[in-house]
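hiii so um. not sure if this is the right channel but i have a protein structure encoded as tokens and i wanna go backwards to a sequence. like what aa goes where. can anyone help
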């Protein structure tokens, strides 16, 4: 029996949460505030930064980082890492360039072949992770080292140099340039079409994560894989698909860079995997999986784009960018930890 006048406890399933609290629990909130701070800071230091051409310049690197950050964020929410994501960009670009320039393939046939190779590498990464039970850090570190060696060794073997060029002379280049490397003029400034692809991929990635069964599976396996498997989630298939998604994004970015620059270096993409991971962490992804945001990852990439160009416009030494990378990673991890603890308190 309940004492007269005593208040019955409120069921947490129907308890109301205020609008401010719901906002604070959004994983992308920190990256949104960070992006606003970075923009205001560099806009105050440089008139060029906030001009049309300036915006186009810092959206360009943000777009390629953002495309990768979306896929990496999905994988991290699923509880895994892919340290080969950066070097795979180079592998895709080199495959397209070699097949089209040295072996006479139509550029589009070479692009499709590089996609098949990238998906095969992603499948191999995911399959080894789910079959062996080894951490994805170890599996993809091995892939990273192997691809780094293959990129350099095969490039030197085929070309006697460390790069492949003259892609603009291949059959099918004009159409490929329209799709991957054309520009759109807005207000007198030229914006790369990769920016539109980035926005589209972000929207699709967010929709998949938040509105589809696959998105629910991704959160489930990232939070607790055995429990997810016990309730019928196809954990192995989902994990492999997430690795293949990262590979597909690497193929897209590698193809974009190859078509735009008309040449590919053997060391392309090396080291960028950390940038992709940090962008996802800044966007609210937990290193332990099960929590994060695709939109937040894109905002993290935007922060990198603004900072990389903002430092140049401000006249600072570019070496400060690496300091910023480490500082943002540390702040993002601390912020994510605070938000998670706050979220746990609201459920009590």
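sure thing!! here u go:
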């Amino acid at each position: 029996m309940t004492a007269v006048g005593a208040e019955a406890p409120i069921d947490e399933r129907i308890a109301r949460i205020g609008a401010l609290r719901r906002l604070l629990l959004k994983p992308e909130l920190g990256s949104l505030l960070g992006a606003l701070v970075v923009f205001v800071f560099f806009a105050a230091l440089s008139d060029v930064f906030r001009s049309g051409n300036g915006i186009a310049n810092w959206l360009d690197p943000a777009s390629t980082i953002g495309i990768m950050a979306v896929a990496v964020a999905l994988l991290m929410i699923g509880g895994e890492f892919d340290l080969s994501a950066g070097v795979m960009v180079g592998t895709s670009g080199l495959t397209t360039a070699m097949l089209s320039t040295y072996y006479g393939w139509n550029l589009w046939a070479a692009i499709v072949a590089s996609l098949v190779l990238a998906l095969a590498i992603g499948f191999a990464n995911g399959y080894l992770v789910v079959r062996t039970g080894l951490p994805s850090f170890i599996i993809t570190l091995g892939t990273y080292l192997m691809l780094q060696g293959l990129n350099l060794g095969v490039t030197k073997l085929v070309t006697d140099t460390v790069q492949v060029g003259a892609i603009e002379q291949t059959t099918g280049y004009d159409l490929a340039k329209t799709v991957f490397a054309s520009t759109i003029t807005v207000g007198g400034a030229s914006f790369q079409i990769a920016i539109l692809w980035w926005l589209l991929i972000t929207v699709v990635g967010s929709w998949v994560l938040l509105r589809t069964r696959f998105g629910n599976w991704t959160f489930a396996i990232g939070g607790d894989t055995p429990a997810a498997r016990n309730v019928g989630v196809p954990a192995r298939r989902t994990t492999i698909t997430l690795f293949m998604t990262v590979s597909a994004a690497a193929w897209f970015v590698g193809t974009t860079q190859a078509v735009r620059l008309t040449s590919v270096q053997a060391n392309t993409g090396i080291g960028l995997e950390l940038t992709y991971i940090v962008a996802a962490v800044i966007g609210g992804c937990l290193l332990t999986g099960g929590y994060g945001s695709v939109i937040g990852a894109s905002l993290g990439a935007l922060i990198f784009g603004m900072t990389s160009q903002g430092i140049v416009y401000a006249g600072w030494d570019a070496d400060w960018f690496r300091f910023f990378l480490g500082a943002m990673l540390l702040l993002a991890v601390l912020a994510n930890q605070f938000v998670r603890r706050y979220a746990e308190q609201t459920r009590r």
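oh and The chain has a mean pLDDT of 87.
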